[in-house]
Amino acid sequence: MKDIEQYLRENKPVVKEDPTFLLETRHRLEAVEGIKGEVDRQSCRMRKALILALVFGLIVGVGVATLAYFFPVNPETVGDGLLDSARLFLQNYRSYLFLPIALLAIALGLVMTRKKGTAFI
Amino acid sequence: MNQERFISLVKAEQEPLRRFLLGLCCGDDALADDIAQDALVRAYVASANFLGLSKFSTWLFRIAYNCYIDHCRKPGKDYASLESREALSVQSGDASDASFHYQQLYQALDRIPEKEKAAIVLFYFEDKSVKEISAILGIPAGTVKYHLSCGRGHLKEHISL
């Protein structure tokens, strides 16, 4: 009597010849390539935008800190205008300016050292 | 891994892969081929993570098995029973001799647990070693042997030799 092992070995399923299978696979892979390319392009655009925003923030931050430290306003002669009030406010809290500047610098460093094509989000 | 290299590797593995899925899908070749295509796309997307620590076929079969499991877990999946599929093929008149020949085997495979079915299909149809099956199914070798033994026992109940 044939045992179950012999039966299974003798009855291996036969796969139908399908020449379109690999063709279909190739089409799907090409579609995947297209999607990957689009994702890479979007990622690259996001990376550039992020770097620009961080550099801009860093420049503005350093500029504001420079103004606050090297061109102090005299509280007695300062006017009531919005710009003067802002300058006075920044001067009073100028030591805290280094925190956002440091954060921006760290973020920029991380983005610049990150492998190209890696998604940020 | 570029597309051409991937295709060349797949060329050698497509028949065993499709046969493995055909066994898991109990003879539903359209479903087996659909899952095979999904598995190949997944494998291609993840091909950068293939470090060559295992054989390409083992890695590919593992992905295919995961695709099959995902398919089985899909809520409201339209997975017709073997009886209804048989009826459909008889009605359409395209029931080949081959599919008739395997009816008893597929019916029996349809009635045993998934892990046992996978172990049986890999061991007897694909001639994979217990170690390879263990890597593909993500279970210890001892458990593979247990599933093989149970699977044989369960199949004996449904197959008249």
Question: How would you describe the overall organization of this protein?
Answer:
The complex is a heterodimer of chains A (121) and B (161). With 121 residues, chain A is mainly alpha-helical. Chain A has one domain. Chain B is an all-alpha fold. Chain B folds into two domains: 79 residues, Rna Polymerase Sigma Factor, Chain: A, CATH 1.10.1740; 51 residues, Arc Repressor Mutant, subunit A (Orthogonal Bundle), CATH 1.10.10.10. Chain B is globular and about 50 Å long. Chain B starts with a helix and ends with a helix. The relative contact order of chain B is 0.12. About 6% of the residues of chain B have low confidence. The chains are: A mainly alpha (121), B mainly alpha (161). At the A-B interface, helix 1 and helix 2 of A face helix 1, helix 2, helix 7 and helix 9 of B.
Task: Break the fold down into its secondary structure elements and pairings.
The complex is a heterodimer of chains A (121) and B (161).
Chain A: H1 4-10, H2 20-70, H3 82-92, H4 98-113
Helix pairs in contact in A: 2-4
Chain B: H1 3-24, H2 29-45, H3 56-73, H4 82-92, H5 97-101, H6 103-110, H7 114-125, H8 130-137, H9 141-158
Helix pairs in contact in B: 1-2, 1-3, 1-7, 2-3, 3-8, 6-9, 7-9, 8-9
Kindly report how far apart the N and C termini of chain A lie.
63 Å
Query: With helices defined by DSSP (H or I, 4 residues minimum), what is the helix count of chain B?
Result: 9
Q: Got a strand count of chain B?
A: 0
Over the alpha carbons, how many angstroms does the gyration radius of chain B reach? 16 Å
Helix content bin of chain A: over 70%
Helix-strand category of chain B: mainly alpha
Alpha carbon gap, first and last residue of chain B: 47 Å
Annotation, overall tally of beta strands of chain A: 0
Could you write a compact summary of the structure shown?
By secondary structure, chain A is mainly alpha-helical. Chain A has four helices and no strands. Chain A is rod-shaped and about 105 Å long.
